[in-house]
Specification:
single chain, Cytochrome p450, about 425 residues, three-stranded antiparallel beta sheet
Amino acid sequence: MTSAYEIGDADELLPASGYRTYEVFQRERVGETTNLLSPRELIGDDMLTDPHRLLSILREQYPCYRDWKGNRFWITRYDDVTSIFVDDANFETRSKRWRFGDESLGRSLWGHVPVLTARATRIDGALTGIVEGAIADLTGAGADLSAGFAARIPLELWGAVLDLPADDLPLFAQRYWRMQRGAGWDMTDRLGGLAAFAELEADIAPLLQRRRVDPADDLISAIAQLDLDDAPATAADVVATVLEADHETLHGGLANLWCNLLTQPDQFDVVRSDRRQMKFAWLETLRHSPPVHAVQRFARHEVERFGRLLPDGAMLELSAAAANRDPRAFDNPNEFVVGRQDLCQREPRGQYRADGLPSGIAFGMGKPSVHPAVPKERPRSIYAITSDVAVTASTMLLDAFPDMRLTDDAEPTISSLHLGEMHTCWHLPVAI
């Protein structure tokens, strides 16, 4: 049996190789001190508006930064982030229901093929009409691509997926956003989120009951008809399933895509001259301007990584914003370049690399597919569906308004309204 201690020259006990003393462990738990940044800056205004200065310091100087203020470890290098993201043996995801403090708050049913199929079928059938409607309403000098296009399309797709009447969408949107915000760390928002959850549950309960008797091809019908071992699906399960479906990537990604194109005319010309480049502009947006800046993973047990001892339950802040601009992975990482040669230009398989090239890390779209090809009985991955929607909608928009431009007084910026929320362009006024 290996001893944790070895006998030194003076008969003193010395830590054996591979072991850490309690004192060292305690020192590491306190956090790091540096004059390059303060932990308070990581929850300050700069992280809302332009976080890349701070993230660059972490990535280059402290790639596994012990943040005592936020009680977490910041992971900021590309290879480090992706290694955690695919390591289910040592790290786990905790649901938004856990954030509410109640894992029993309904069940997420996205793991069931009929649910995924119903979502994909509804999106495919409704997308063209929804985009055409949004485009038709974008008229005059007061059009706003963020509110009238990027925000509208995901909302109306949710209406189609759930088979909600158009008149119900504004109230659904208000409750949906309250519920999503409640899954953050603010206790006041959490109480509002729980209230919104209960309101949505009350709205969906009678619809779920009707779908048991008279099913359609919508998501609620698919959930109502599931054969579950433990108990039939409830309205709370429907709401929990909606809660766990991240919305930020499509809404925020669309706004960021058009912000990047309209503020960089040379890159806009690339797409305008060849519509096939829209796919590559979308992929570059997910790398350069990811709408979900970071997600959390938790250590399943004590584990040593990146030269640190991560305690059981340690929270890791995996920063896509930092990793996607890692110069070890990408040339000139701060530049938005449509069709860049060092970026994987298709859905990666298994990890965030394919054909030896890195892919932009896009939290909110789930892991890339592990299958070399999608089995016939399964729908496309959420990653693929989201990309298809974004590219199709953006191509239709460009076909309708090839000469659109920013209004003369426009000063679009990409920012977050609250810590931990979507990082996107909230206002994008255009002349059509």
